[in-house]
Amino acid sequence: MILASSVLLVCWEFVTRHPGLLLVLLGVAGEVFFDWKEMTGKRSWVKKSSAILLILGLMVEFWEAATSDHEAAVLMAKVEELRKSNLELEAKLQHRQITLEQRGKFIAFLKNAPKAPIVVLHGSGEGEVISYSNQIREMLDAAGYGGADSTGHIAGVEFNSHVSIRGQPTNQQSLVVLMIKTNKMPAFGSEMAHAFDGIGISNAVMSTTENIVSPSGLTVFVGSKYE
Questions:
Q1: Given a cut of 70, is residue 129 above it in pLDDT?
Q2: Within-domain flag for 155
Q3: Contact 94/86 with Cβ under 8 angstroms?
Q4: What is the Cα gyration radius of the chain?
Q5: How many domains does the chain have?
Q6: Which of 50, 92, 135, 210 has an alpha carbon within 20 to 30 A of 219's alpha carbon?
Q7: What digits encode the pLDDT tens for the residues 41-90?
Q8: Given 68, 92, 116, which residue is the final one in a domain?
Q9: Residue-wise over 130-140: b if at least 16 C-beta within 10 A, else e?
């Protein structure tokens, strides 16, 4: 039943694409059928053979048209698959961007949270990572988390090639890690994590004993998009 329905559907689609061929075939077949008995005389075999060849030729045209339709459908499927692959590749190559809307929401989320200078750290020299780190730095400054810490060090964007977040529970779309000193979440830590989540930047908290955490108790680490 399902097979019959599929065949009928294919036939219907073919007819709608090539109505002219069908009409010609039906016209020729009808003419041959009604004139068959009148094809008499010495050269009747020539007339009948020509009529049969004409019908066979039209049937071959049908077959070639159907084959072309199938090849076109296969080609279109490959083109669509290639288009999707290109879109996926473009998405992977596209740099992460913080929009004005995200920036505004981030500032609003942290409006009443405690403030302290926060260092932005990254471990890659990739242009995309540096650009994204600078965007996060600017957003933190606008939210009140810039300036100098207790040691007089200005909270900026720092590079440390020895720091990696491989194996950490992060999301590849953002790869932002809030680094804290061993099990010591600062007063604004949870609100900071909530603010990042609130603007669609997935993040994870990582406790470390390394001397890379800001005196404020938290450092924002920006990982590679492809890490």
A1: yes
A2: yes
A3: no
A4: 35
A5: 2
A6: 92
A7: 666 666 666 667 767 776 777 666 667 766 677 778 887 888 887 777 77
A8: 92
A9: eebbbbbbebb
Contact call for residues 136 and 97 (beta carbons, < 8 A): no
Mean pLDDT in the chain? 77
To which residue do tokens 């200078």 refer? 117
Mean pLDDT of 19-45: 63
Are 49 and 130 within one domain? no
Tokens describing residue 98: 């913080």
More confident residue, 192 or 180: 192
Any idea how long the chain is?
227
Of the candidates 195, 191, 222, the one whose C-alpha atom is nearest the C-alpha of residue 206 is: 222
- At 104, the amino acid letter reads G
Q: Are the CB atoms for 168 and 83 separated by under 8 Å?
A: no
Task: Report helix, strand or coil for 177.
Answer: strand
Q: Kindly report each contact of residues 126-130 with a partner whose C-beta sits within 8 Å and lies 24 or more positions away, as own/partner.
A: 126/224, 128/95, 128/96, 128/224, 128/225, 129/222, 129/223, 129/224, 129/225, 130/157
State the alpha helices, DSSP H only, in the chain.
2-17, 19-35, 44-93, 100-109, 127-142, 189-198
- In whole angstroms, give the CA distance from residue 194 to residue 172: 18
Nearest C-alpha neighbor of 195 from the set 91, 131, 113, 138: 113
From first CA to last CA, the distance across the chain in angstroms is 52
